[in-house]
Design brief:
By secondary structure, the chain is of the alpha/beta class. It has one domain: Alkaline Phosphatase, subunit A, CATH 3.40.720. The protein contains twelve helices and 17 strands. The protein has helices at residues 28-36, 50-59, 63-66, 82-88, 153-168, 194-199, 219-228, 235-265, 297-300, 323-334, 410-423, 426-451; strands at residues 3-9, 37-40, 43-44, 92-96, 113-115, 145-147, 177-182, 190-192, 272-278, 301-302, 304-307, 315-317, 321-322, 358-363, 372-377, 380-385, 391-394. Helix 1 (28-36) packs across helix 8 (235-265). The radius of gyration is 21 Å and the shape is globular.
Length: 452
């Protein structure tokens, strides 16, 4: 039975890789993985925000099911996890790195081993409160960038721990195992170790589309620019931030290479499903937006490359898929059963080009006035906004989402809305998300009162 290793980064826009067509960003190890396996060209996060996205992967549920609507963690949840469920079925599950940015104390999740994971106290910030206009909660974007010697040390330590585990422990096990390795890069701030910074000297470019195009004028986009106070960035700052991001992507690629080397040198590569994935994307200045929190492609799309048993070499799959499908893939690889009701289909079973397959994402976090839902089906993508105009894009004809054709294509819009309503009731979910916020705010008030 195959084993599974996957490296999960934070905030990686898939378009910023050579595998997905970037003209100069270097990701040779991702190319190496793609040559051995399958590139999923249209992979999506279930929510473009850290804690909700990672919680969906961990729990096998959509956001509206696990109710991890935002990054506030003051009310823990007790959902089963893939690590715990697999361990109960005899799979040795290992989780490495600080990325347990999830819905409960990570040491309750049931993994066989947790290495380098730290308990974190709930943040008592109330920025997720959407009853307050985004600008009033605004915080200046972290525009720090440049060469820095000690950046990414935590990621280096995590990957070194993973390599050591592969060399010293994996071969001793007489059962299937999974190894989850988390790194924080290329998440901002956009510092980079000098050797990576120098790789992109002179390559700090500007976004092709700024805040003067149609999608940038959408009310939710304006909310997000207000929220991060992004209007004051200079051209020099934007170039520097993008240079640092490119450097971060190449650094993450090098960490993938270390894992591949360790598997190859220990003779485990051929019997291991190896994957690279991220929790969500990064707008990187497109439409004047930074970070995530939006349903535009640069934020909601993720890289997903998988190689090993069950994955054909050199294959590219156009069918839209989700991070939840990747979780189902882990169970399929090690021969384990997922709990009833968990979302996702193993990627081993996804056709190369299925125009009828639907992928879903939702966002209820900070920075916008109300919820947002996304449905992708074939070339079409609907963004269903609860407090702003809906948006419909034909991604084959308009990959940069410059032209909202919602009014011009009512039949397509109606079809995708019907697909959305098969998954959830958006109005009811939106109300529940606001109710959850009120519960969280009340819990924070009680905690602050107890501290006083």
């Amino acid at each position: 039975m195959p084993n599974v290793v996957f490296l999960m980064s934070d905030s990686h826009n898939p378009f910023v890789t050579s595998v997905y067509g970037h003209p100069f960003v270097r990701t040779p190890n991702l190319e190496r993985l793609a040559e051995r396996g399958t590139v999923f060209e249209n992979a999506y996060t279930p929510s473009p925000l850290c804690v909700p996205a990672r919680s969906c992967l961990m729990s096998g549920m959509y956001v509206h099911q696990n109710e991890v609507f935002n990054n506030c963690k003051v009310i823990p949840a007790g959902h089963p996890t893939y690590g715990g469920v697999l361990a109960e079925q005899g799979v040795h599950t290992v989780y490495i790195g600080p990325g347990a940015n999830l819905y409960n104390d990570p040491f309750t999740f049931g993994f066989t081993e947790m290495i380098g994971v730290k308990r974190t106290e709930p943040n008592l910030s109330t920025r997720f409160d959407r009853s307050v206009p985004p600008k009033e909660h605004g915080r200046p974007i972290n525009k720090k960038h440049g060469p820095k010697d000690d950046v990414w040390q935590g990621d280096i330590d995590s990957v070194e721990s993973a390599v050591r585990w592969l060399r010293e422990r994996a071969s001793q096990l007489d059962k299937p195992w999974t190894l989850t390795v988390n790194v924080v890069a290329p998440h901002p701030p956009f510092y980079a170790r000098p050797e990576y910074w120098r790789m992109y000297e002179g390559y700090g470019d500007l976004p092709e589309y700024g805040d003067d195009v149609e999608p940038a004028r959408h009310p939710y986009a304006q909310d997000l620019r207000d929220y991060i106070l992004a209007g004051g960035l200079t051209e020099q700052e934007i170039r520097g931030m993008r240079q640092g991001y490119y450097a971060g992507v190449t650094f993450v690629d090098a960490q993938l290479g270390l894992l591949l080397d360790a598997l190859e040198e220990t003779g485990q590569l051929e019997n291991t499903v190896v994957a690279y994935v991220s929790d969500h994307g990064e707008m990187l200045g497109k439409f004047g937006l930074w970070w995530k929190r939006t349903m535009y492609e640069d934020s909601v799309r993720i890289p997903l490359v998988v190689a090993g048993p069950g994955f054909a070499a050199g294959r590219r799959v156009r069918t839209p898929v989700s991070l939840l499908d990747f979780q189902a893939t882990i169970f399929q690889a090690v021969g384990a059963q997922r709990p009833d009701g968990w979302q996702g289909t193993p990627l081993q079973h996804v056709a190369e080009n299925d125009p009828e397959r639907v992928v879903f994402s939702e966002y209820h976090g900070d920075g916008i006035r109300a919820g947002s839902f996304m449905v992708r089906k074939g070339d079409w993508k609907l963004i269903y906004n609860m407090a702003a105009p809906h948006q419909l894009f034909n991604l084959a004809e308009d990959p940069d989402e410059l032209h909202n054709v919602y009014a011009k294509e009512p039949e397509v819009a109606a079809d995708l809305e019907q697909e959305l309503r098969r998954i959830c009731d958006p109005e009811a979910v939106n109300e529940r998300a606001f109710a959850k916020e009120r519960e969280q705010l009340a819990a924070i008030a009680r905690m602050k009162e107890a501290e006083a």
